[in-house]
Amino acid sequence: MGTAMKCGVITFPGSLDDADTLYSVRQLLGFEGVALWHKDRDLQGVDFIVLPGGFSYGDYLRTGALARFAPVMESVVEFASNGGLVMGLCNGFQILCESGLLPGALVRNQSLRYVCAEVGVRVERSNTPFTNACKTGDVLRLPIKHGEGCFAADEATLGRLEENGQVLVRYVDESGDPTAAANPNGSLHNIAGIVNEAGNVFGMMPHAEHACDRLLGLEDGAKVFRSVEQWLLRGGRA
Amino acid sequence: MNGAPVDEKTALEHGLTAEEFANFCTAIGRAPNLAELGVVSVMWSEHCSYKSSRAVLRDLPKEGPRVLQGPGENAGAVSIGDGLAAVFKIESHNHPSYIEPYHGAATGVGGILRDVFTMGARPIANLNSLRFGAFDHPRTRYLVSGVVSGVGGYGNCVGVPTVGGEIYFDRGYNENILVNAFTLGIVREDGIFRAEASGVGNPVLYVGSKTGRDGIHGASLLASSEFDDETEDKRPTVQVGDPFTEKLLIEACLELMERDAIVAIQDMGAAGLTSSSVEMADRGDVGICIDLDKVPKREEGMTPYEILLSESQERMLIVARAGSEEQVREVFRKWDLDAAVIGEVTDDRRLRVFAGGEEVVNLPVSPLANGAPVYERHSAPPTKQTELQRLSLADVPSPGDYNRCLLSLLAAPNIASREWVYSQYDHYVGGNTVVRPGSDAAVVRVKGTQKAIALSVDCNSRYCLLDPYVGAMTAVVEAARNVVCAGAEPIGVTDCLNFGNPEKPEVMWQFREAIKGIRDACNALSLPVVSGNVSFYNETDGRPIPPTPTIAMVGLMEDVRHHCVQWFESEGDLVIMLGRTREELGGSEYLATVHGLVRGTPPWMDLSVEKAVQAVCLEAIREGIVTSAHDLSEGGLAVGLAECCISGPGAPLGAEIELEASIRPDAWLFGESQSRIVVSVKSRHLSRLREIAAQRSTPLTVLGTVRGSRLRIGRLVDVDVTELRDTWSGALAKLMRGEEA
Fold it and tell me: In chain B, whose CA is at the least distance from the CA of A217?
């Protein structure tokens, strides 16, 4: 890439963190931020796509269930199947699961309450497009804010995810252990984020885009975006 | 005119008095029909007309060099410099939240958001102030849990962070909870929109959700009368909110405002289409003509009466420039929302409404709005007031074990950590939250500038019960003190005045005293009250709530880097108290929690002392010599120090306070003397802090040092800070699970 990375951020009706994501990638990370509209199929030549947090379509039916039918999602699926990098954060993760780009599902938090908090997540693998600026075992401090972030999957899927190293981040306590107390929503295996088998589609519940600004107290989210940038700069290698 | 004239009996059923009905008939020269009666009954309701409070509210200071918009519009606005304005307001949604806690609270949030973005401002922060009954009341946990999830359910879904608030428990609210919601927005000073209709022939557009049968008479019958045995039957008067539509409405309205299409805009809140059209016409001294057949409806067969009084949510009324209709439609189409031309501005100063080709309402605007009755209600102090204020400290036994007292206060519902509540609210969205919930005030930065806004909401209703004048004054100065502790200069106030039935002289007395208190405190601190809301009739079966004049304070920080938090940050820092402790315990949380007494007079208040203490603290923070600053309030010095030790995000820090009590130990530890702030500073900054304090003759006491893992206060208190933190942080969750804290 000769110029700044072009990061596309999709706005669905009800997306909430779309503007914050654009602000972070433009003002704090120095990328070119491109606003993508749910009714448009044109991805405007972006290098990387973020599906932001929020309550797309009001979370009606099920979280993420309606967004998958948006015209832009046809292009996203095509982009992903050609190896393009796609990241879903929070509601974006839910949409990726509903569209079949990622396995499993996000269900109601075990507490039955919405939870907004700062959590620690451990990087399980660093040789990926989304985590190569971290070291395996690093604990990132990131915010979560969701009512339906409990990762669920059947035994076979879960086994495959673990075996293939598709679990990229896991909720951990201060000593880096994935304890029940450190699990904010009841996710199986403390899973906070996963990639697809091909390794180019990543979804996680924590909000990397809200952890890029020193003034606001958290900066570890920038590492996720930097990972993508470095991966693309090196032509797609760890 | 279509429709038979109504009689007095029907008018009484609509909440009008016989005299009001007679006066209205005189004003319009005939008896109204049913639809017209519906219109006047909501416009003249306490909720819409402020008929009992208007005369008293005139005393509040509303002017100031920063004021761009005072009371009377959808929200108030103050300049924050650089061509920007802060737009804000607080509003109550008490009765709906008691009847239907989730939707009552949710639509309270939705309504206040609309009041702010109607002005052209993008909402960037929400606060809320909640009052519930005692935990031993069977309904309390149900109400808390419903209201908190309603506030979160709406706020979280529209993408506006809830950055702070307050929550108190008192048996005085057992059957009448309070839900007050606040929104702050930012707008360019030259981009403020108002709700003043003008331009004869300009089209009137309806945008947003379709109209249904929900919320009919919410304003008149629900908000403007007391609760009794039949209250549950009023559930249909509570509206149901849809935050998803609200989010689209925010984006569509703000996008439209960038174009030159809007003349005036107002939210259809209380009394829906009726009040929005009447108020817009009244402000602009014009008339409005509406065709109800063109109103988007979600139900068949709605009568004109129902359409006019529906309080369906997420709707706005726009007066657009003639010829710009298609522009409006285009923007709303983009966001998949309805936009329909339903009428136009006329020159006859009348509200004329048509349905099925026939005229169903034809009323002069002025008697409906400005012509609403104004009452100078009789007021007299409650007979028990003097008795309530009697407190002899000699009769209050000194408890032996102060450690236990401190722990029980930290576990008290009114002092325990609020994390159980605020962890259910998104406080990150928007990407501006510099100081999150859990400190004295929240801080949000203003993007594109170095500035930040600090926000706090406050009211100690126990003080207000004992002395509404001093209590209300204290609410103002404490909210200001909180904002100062965050490093900001207080610049504007919005108030939510929650009281009982104003037709009772003792309630009216409380109201008048409270307004005087707000007036005097605001004058002393040069603060304008730019918006607000009055909520009367907060009583059940004849028992009024404690007077609760909630104050929301907006503070400005020119440089966001000067923000300050309440918790200690490093070992070795000196712990210093600004201000002075008196031997007083009246109205304290200690007296209530440990001795079961609610009596005495609230803490002494001297506004000039308060002003000096705040000035010292603010100057020191701006000079960068203060590490932390915490206002002392409920629970006094001991609780305040404990909070400094345990409320930070990191591991708790201990403190050693060498100073011994020079007054009664319990008053020294737990008394709630006002105008006190605990700061921590590096020892090298002590002399400079002394200078600043001396310049304003403010007492400064070095209490001790941040050190170790225990909080030691003289020979009285010695507890491990982890124990303090565990007690404090888990108490509310335990109470919500039905366990002893």
Answer: B434
